[in-house]
Amino acid sequence: MSTSSGKSAKRASPGYACTECGMTAVRWVGRCPECQAWGTMAEAGVRAAALTRPAAVTPRTAAEPISKTDSAVARAAATGIGELDRVLGGGLVPGAVLLLAGEPGVGKSTLLLEVGQKYAQRGGPPALLITGEESTAQVRARAQRTHTMHEDFFLAAENDLGAVIAHLDEVKPGLLILDSVQTIASSTVEGGVGGVPQIRAVTATISAIAKERGIATVLVGHVTKDGSIAGPRALEHLVDVVLYFEGDRHTSLRMLRAIKNRFGATDEVGCFEMHEEGIDELPDPSGLFVSTRDIAVPGTCVTVTVTGRRPLLAEVQALVSPYGASSGSPRRSFTDLDSSRVNMLLAVLGRLSDLQRLSEREVYAASVGGIKISEPAVDLAVAMAVASAATDRPLPANLFAIGEISLSGDVRRVSGVQRRLSEAARLGFRKALVPHGSDWSLVAGLKVYEVPTIAAAWQTVSAL
User: In this protein, which residues make up the domain named RecA family profile (predicted)?
Assistant: First the structure.
């Protein structure tokens, strides 16, 4: 009887786990039922199915009224990097655990060297960087090149969780940087380095120590091919803040975004510029996204996009050329723009009398400076740039356009019009196309034209 019951419990135990989301299953399947990823189910070993209630233990601290809880220990301290503080909501909170993810080579380690050096300069507890991917000599060479060395900035190369804890006991840091969490393994947990059990155990242990000792902790995370954080989905739930550091390797622009933040907003973005000697913050990055030229040229239009809470000027460029092939369809190529929306705009533009043969021509469109523009508020600028290129009529150099375009050709209202107008006026623009009925007030030196439809917008521009 008992033998049969034991075999039944063993068969009911999950023996496979998804390496992406951590979902468990009794049998192997080719596709994870939870995250729909293929080939991610790996054997996780047999676990007991019986659930038992744990025995009561003495709590570390007694419960007290929430009004008597000291909130000073959870107050954010500025890092000295304004763009990072903007995203974090004021700075680093003692005991908080941050997960910083990004593609290889985007500059995560360079940014964190800057964070560690700024923290060490403040005085007080030192900063500790533990690298599991590089040697200490490699990290020191980068720190020397980027001028981020300090006597209170400690460095160690470890891959064992026990050794990491020993360094914490010896150095007693106020800031811990672990680069990266997928390279650290615990000797008490089965599975290979970077596997689901190891990542979960390492993150949970480091998080518990950080909160117990009040250590601000930054964990560096790898990303998969589709841009998501590698490892179990539970990894994002174990930390307090999840940051993404993104940017094109071929451009100097880098952007830092928060997708989870227990201490601040998640709609802020920080801008940085990479160069040979390190990384610099960009409090006013709009100049990177707008070309500087003396005369107006066809096919360009400036817009104002809101990234997080920050209005940024961006320039859209378009090229329309004759289609010379005898068969097939004209080519459409769009860079850093939403291709589906641009194709929709081309169909709407084809109704205008000046652009009725647009479907027979090749169209190329892109944004300047490597910024990805996806919000509908830039529709009007894209449409004006394409119309300008198709008719070979340059738009006024000091004009910008904001507005969403519907399938009927109407220009719809967008949010934050006043902020967008003020930012463009601050940078010298004097004429604006905005949706009819927008909520805005007069800005000094700025002439605003309200347009109800895309046809009215093109007529207004042609008359300027």
Answer: 73-223
Dist. CA 149–CA 189, nearest whole Å: 35
Beta strand segments in 61-186, E: 97-101, 127-131, 153-157, 175-179
Residue that the structure tokens 């496979």 belong to: 16
- The whole-model pTM stands at 0.76
Distance, in Å, from the CA atom of 125 to the CA atom of 106, rounded to the nearest integer, reads: 29
* β-strand pairing of 431-435 with 399-401: parallel
SS3 category, 412: strand
Residue reference for tokens 């623009």: 429
Report d(CA 435, CA 420) in Å as an integer: 13
Could you tell me the residue ranges of all domains in the chain?
Answer: 7-43, 77-283, 288-463
Q: Who's near 414: CB < 8 A, 6+ residues apart?
A: 376, 377, 402, 403, 404, 435, 438
Whole-angstrom CA distances from 263 to 87, 96, 116, 223, 260 are 10, 9, 20, 24, 9
Residue type, 72: A
| Residue positions forming the annotated binding site for ATP | 102-109
Tell me the two tokens of residue 354. 């000046």
Kindly report, residue by residue over 168-216, the tens digit of the pLDDT. 999 999 999 999 888 999 988 887 787 778 888 899 999 999 999 999 9
Residues in the chain: 464
CATH class for the region spanning 288-463 = alpha beta
Beta strands in 323-401 (DSSP E): 332-335, 361-367, 399-401
How high is the mean pLDDT of the chain? 86
Query: Do the Cβ atoms of 129 and 168 come closer than 8 Å?
Result: no
The set of residues, in sequence order, having a beta carbon less than 8 Å from that of 260 and lying 6+ positions away, is 236, 239, 240, 241, 242, 266
Annotated binding site: 102-109
